[in-house]
Fold these 4 entries.
Entry 1:
Amino acid sequence: MGDIVLCREGYGSSRVKKNYVSTDDGRLLVVDQSPTGTTVSHFFRSVFLPQGYPESVSQDYLEYQIWDTIQAFASSITGTLAAQAVLKGVGVGDESATVLAATMTWILKDGTGMLGRIVFAWLRGSSLDCNSKRWRLFADILNDLAICIEILAPNFKSIFTPLVCTAGICKSIVGVAGGATRAALTQHQARRNNMADVSAKDGSQETLVNLAALVCNLALIPLVTGKQTLIWFLYVIFTCLHLYANYSAVKCVVMETMNQSRLNLIVKDLLDSSHIPGVKQTNHSEPVVFRTRRKLEIVLGSSVGKLCNSAKDLQDLLLLYKGMPYLLGLNIKRGEICIALSEGSTTEDQLQSCFQAEVINYVYENLYKNKTLHSSLSPMVQALEGGDVLGTLTASLAYTKSTIVAFRQGVLQQGWTVDPVLLNANEWRARWDSNGVTDKKEF
């Protein structure tokens, strides 16, 4: 009769394969069909990569993790050089140094770092999700600066403690910005509601890298101790590697959610070429070092009081935006477009209001560049040239209403998601009716 294969199975997209065979004597035989060496590679994949890789993560996962591994290794090397310098500064190896002085320095360093962490989270916490790539790179640049200060500190005995405290503040900010943005990037990479698994495996990868760096440091430290020129040479080399790897890491991330920087690029491309750019193209063009530069800054979720200077201005806005979930005001002198949201506004309303604001900014930026704009933008051009703010708002609103449905369909076809959006809206919300009555609230 011969053996009969009853079942075949495989582990995800890996090459681990098994056959379940019924033998002549009735036994169930498990036959491993995996190629040679697959078991070892499968073991390491299961230890260091999320379950279901690569289907369970975003397409940019592997490239990002490679660059992240390189930067973590470089950071571990420079961090050890800094730790050696700080220990030397507090008196390790110096017979005249006291335990009390070293302890006080360490306490002050930790204390100022804790305060810095609280203040930074208060001032910038809400923008970390919206601009996670830029803040991630900022955190790593600041970390290198802190390490530089720590290496320098022992050379300035009179101000050693203030320098170390400054470095502590920088590193505390790095901890907040780096940790928060890492969580945002992990959320982007997790495609099977497996954020915890992706985060845990990322931690395993980093631990392995740190172990490798630890072995290198054990061999390196005896060679560089007391040799300042060699220390600075290694610091420069590994810092350059660290910064390049971090820049490459954030540039390769492709996020489908819209923030103000990506929306700015999409609207510019749309108005320049009547084409909505794809997710990958826009992400690669997104600035990750500096903020998006506009002539008119966009403030979403603004207080109603910032939109107008008089009761008549407010009444004009209420009449223009009658029945709409937002009010948009333009102040050319301040270089601002402020958007007040109603209590019932949705993410779609936020996207539409920011789209209108980006259109106004685009026309304003190109007003004096002798650039031929599409005929549909002519009413806005004429209004801005004449300094007619209300006319500009009226023309931009009419253009937005005529194009917003096609815009939403276009971005969805290109792979963008419109819910949620990361447009960094403030928390002011208002109520208004046709009689011009508003009631501001802050939640």
Note: The chain has a mean pLDDT of 86.
Entry 2:
Amino acid sequence: MRKSEARKLIGEAREAFDAGEWQRSADLHEQVLAHFPDEEPSAVWWYDAALAHKFLRDWEKALDLGREAAARSPRGEGDPAYWNLGIAATILRDWATARDAWSGFGIELPGGEGEIDGRFGAACVRLDTDGQREVVWIERLCPTRGRVVNVPVTGGRRYGEIVVHDGEPKGERVHDGTAFPVFDELTLFEASPLPTLEVTVAAGEAGDLEALLALFTEHGFGAEPASSVRLLCACCSEGTHQQEREVLAGAQAVSLAAPEPQARLLLERWAGERAIGRSWSGLAGVG
């Protein structure tokens, strides 16, 4: 292949990329890279080819091409080639490659080998299941994985599941004056064994409902009052929003994440702590 032909194909690959034709873009990039793997701009070509496969959710190819991109990129300078390689390696559970990728990006990791289980702070993830989208809070375990700490209202999603998210924030949520990024979900990494239940509770005071939420949290379960759920359009969801859990007195639905026998025991305990002002009914599974 002549360099003039390579330049033409790279131009076509970029046009395909801009048009969202990920497979065509990847194929054209790889066609050129087969002949010119180490030209001056080849690091960008490897990166774009790997990125196209990321958008295709072809993680094996994203990993293979991502390795080539990272090998031609500077370490410790926040180069995105390492970030995308870290994502692909994490999804494929290639922990040695993932650890090297995050280090190459410039992130300090907890010591040891194998799966990364650290404390990377709180963030939000926009879950996406069959077109249903919901922003939930997570505890970040590594640069791209987090454990869901809300009880999702989206069918089939669960409190405690671990998701892999993208690296580019799409919106933010502000809590107690601190802004937290909202990332898009890439895939469900680990399912949660906790079923989702729904119950109607009557709380004489807001503090009564707070006590119920705290009780479930203390036992490693989840509880989410309907009053804390806000509906936003897709455009607004990617903006900046205040995110405060609104806990109200009165009767309302509460989503629970717990096995039904334990949920029933905790509800009885909660209601029995005060003779007046606390009651519950209609405990049932959801979805």
Note: The chain has nine helices and eleven strands.
Entry 3:
Amino acid sequence: MQEVIVIVPLSIRPYVDGQSRVTVEAQTVRGALRAMSAKFAQLNEHLFDSKDEINRFIRIFVNGRPVPLGSRGDETLESGAEVMLVLALAGG
């Protein structure tokens, strides 16, 4: 497994002890999010929906490039990759 860095948005930093970056070991985007959920249990409900899919309100970028919505986490990561999460805000 390779080490990757997940860049955490401000809105969920309280669930990762205030960290802006979390290093995890993973081979795929989904694996990186799973590894984060394993480290920080409260994070799971923010990253995954009731069907255990990556939450549709999360946009993911790997090394600055957007991950297509259809793939939802199957992309392979290289060691040192940066996975940035962007959470959509709702309101009205």
Note: The beta strands are 2-7, 21-26, 58-62, 65-66, 82-87.
Entry 4:
Amino acid sequence: MALDHNVQRSLFAADALLPTGWARNVLVQWDGAGRIFAVTADATAPQGTPVAPGPLLPGMPNLHSHAFQRAFAGLTEYRAESEDSFWSWRNLMYRFAARITPESLEAIATWLYVEMLEAGYTSVCEFHYVHHDQDGTPYADDATLSQALLRAAQSAGIGITLLPVLYQTSGFGARPPRADQARFIRSTDNMLSLLERLAPVTQAQGAVLGLAPHSLRAVPPDSLTAAVQGLTALNPQAPIHIHIAEQTQEVDDCIAWSGQRPVQWLLDHAPVDKRWCLVHATHMTPDEYAAGARTGAVAGICPTTEANLGDGIFDMPLWLQHGGRWGVGSDSHACVNAAEELLMLEYTQRLSLRQRNVLATATQPDVATAMTLQAVAGGAQAAGRAVGGIAVGQLADMVALNAQHVALRDLPAHSMLSSHVFGSHRTSAIDSLWVAGVRRVSGGRHALHESAAQAFVAARSATIAPN
């Protein structure tokens, strides 16, 4: 006998992490568009309703991704200069970016998005700046590489916020772009035309379209103003993401150019509000932390990438003291694991402050629970998508842990989440994952795992092969 249609769009969990905290015997129901219309605690599962194999968690938004960089993760871990830094790493990254093709980008991104889903991410903000052909010539269809990313997201089944990147100069003071940045460069009018071209495509896919002025060093003031105004005319709610204050050299150069630090300059010259995501924002003064948090913008923290690149440590307690919102991203994809980003974030705070359980709150003393709820809320805001947790009106983006995993077995639900984040076990405790109510991961595996992995390996080999 076929299941009742409503039963097929429902899930029962003995324990579920709701925006208000943990609840018992929770029935989640969603409509044909994947939007939750009922969350009932202390419920009894209707006959035939699927039952989660363990605690049910909200899906984690990944608020910062450069998909193509996954293919050279781990390949720059050797000393190339007497003192390696973000800037020497960037030179190696540019060499790799120069060889990307539409086909290789789609294969790399598809595998990456499969990895993200298997690792607990249900949506991604793609900060996309490789726009043109290998010699910098625009493709006949100017949206060729953007559409490769959209197809990859659709194939994997991950929600996506596409953020085409505006990139115009190589440094503060409108320095001309370098030769190895030719694939990134667009005029402001050209960028707005691209957004108009992509708007119906993203809408048809259920994706969100925003804009990413790359950084203050790459977008002159007049262009930043015009681009934000143009985006707002197209969609007043569209998200805006920007790299800001990631490196101390960037801060020094900004002061030399303007007399102000990057975050200080941005807040004085741009209409920063809750639409904005300040990616990294690592090097701020106490006044910048306070002023930045007051805008309602989200701090986009990428702990494993920031550690990999030697960026520095974001002062999360100071940000939270002023009511700041935050989320996590995997950025360069040195690591693709939502739980490990949370772990790295908490551990860097511990190392900096020489304290434990730094990001627990008065209402949520369990660190993993507190961090998960905050990262989901901030990530959803940055993505501009209704993915803010297991609640009415949100998309049914959910992750079920395996309660029989050796690291979780016989623990209470909140301790299962804590073990998942901080237990450092060799195999994933994620059993299942849903995006907008569609099950994309089962038994810890995505249906495309093998085929996407093979295509990724082939694309990587072709891209890193010598000329």
Note: Residues 5-58+390-450 form a domain with the Urease, subunit C; domain 1 fold (CATH 2.30.40.10).
